[in-house]
Amino acid sequence: MDDPDLVLDARGLKCPLPVLKARKRLNGLASGAVLTVLASDPAARKDFAAFCEAAGHALDGVADGPDDATTFTIRRK
Predict the structure, then answer these.
(1) Which of 27, 47, 65, 73 sits CB 3.0–4.6 Å from 61 for a disulfide?
(2) Which residues are catalytic?
(3) CB-based contacts of 32: which residues, under 8 Å, 6+ apart?
(4) Fold of 6-75
């Protein structure tokens, strides 16, 4: 897996803030760039899957991360 171009720490934020912040960061990245998001909201798994599908971004990875967070690896369309 590629190193991320940007890392967003959204731990402690509740739905929909992690997805909204990720969308804003992705808009500033070039096509094909990788954003890694750390999120602690339990709804984030469902939210990021739906967001990526709707926006056309690739959800390259979902893994358990530090401090009970989930790490999402998103590749911009």
Answers:
(1) 73
(2) 15
(3) 75, 76
(4) Translation Initiation Factor IF3 (3.30.110)
Tokens of 21: 């912040």
CA distances 57 to 1, 45, 61, 73, Å, are 16, 15, 12, 10
Q: What is the end-to-end Cα distance of the chain in Å, rounded? A: 17
Dihedral pair phi/psi, residue 14, rounded to 5°: -100, 160
What's the rounded Cα separation, in Å, for the pair 56 and 68? 27
What pTM value is reported for the model?
A: 0.94
In the chain, where are the structural domains located? 6-75
